Amino acid sequence: xxxxxxxxxxxxxxxxxxxxxxxxxxxxxxxxxxxxxxxxxxxxxxxxxxxxxxxxxxxxxxxxxxxxxxxxxxxxxxxxxxxxxxxxxxxxxxxxxxxxxxxxxxxxxxxxxxxxxxxxxxxxxxxxxxxxxxxxxxxxxxxxxxxxxxxxxxxxxxxxxxxxxxxxxxxxxxxxxxxxxxxxxxxxxxxxxxxxxxxxxxxxxxxxxxxxxxxxxxxxxxxxxxxxxxxxxxxxxxxxxxxxxxxxxxxxxxxxxxxxxxxxxxxxxxxxxxxxxxxxxxxxxxxxxxxxxxxxxxxxxxxxxxxxxxxxxxxxxxxxxxxxxxxxxxxxxxxxxxxxxxxxxxxxxxxxxxxxxxxxxxxxxxxxxxx
Length: 371
Known about the structure:
single chain; alpha/beta; 3 domains; elongated
């Protein structure tokens, strides 16, 4: 008797259909094949089982003594799966009621399932091994549908199509640039776009930008004042930069020759520091407001505006001193005032936090005891 043995090493049949294995006999095997095809039409083990049925019908029509069965392993690895297949082959052989010598024709879908052949050979002689390969997978149609499926993925489209599109645009844009007598500008712009895209993909800037936009959207709908504070602070920083450049031009006009680097830095800082300090105070107040609304405000958070003012006072005095606008007395006074402002604010809010926390704890103790 010839035993047509369909091998499913990773037990797709059992996991996807719930069939108990081994499956023995023509009708049960056909039922299992239909169930697996219904559960997962793309599973290659479907073709293995139907191929086993085809071989069984062909040999049966010729009058040969034949039986068909499906044996499975598991998804725990080659060794455990091979042992499981060996046990199921023993079960199949024990169920065959025949006095004839039994040989096997093993049907698989690839080299991985064929690793179990030595296990089967140790139990029953093997007349042959047939690997099922779907013909469609070898032609151009399969390639077309594979490419179509890959390009349907948004991540793949963004990774492959955008750089390819930019590269394909280089030649026509170069022709347009030559016609407009701007070949260098067009090629440089195209190259810059491609480089920026690749850098953004490599650094994951797209995901970060999406996250930032989502955070801004949530802050907008949640009524967070931090978002408004950041917008105002950005405008103040721009104004500070403009004011700093104006101060730098003023110093350059009043100074013969080139302006030294320290003097240029001092001039820019002197002209912009008040605007940048206002931006820092604005953002810190916005953050403090949101923390208070959320009920998570701590006393030490109130130090932020005073620290900003302290730093601004120090930088303004130092830059003015470099520009010979103030004397050493003013510089010493400003440095002392900035330092004292930071220290006093730190001590004040630290003491306030300590006393209020102690008061809250003492106020909660009677309630806890009464409870």
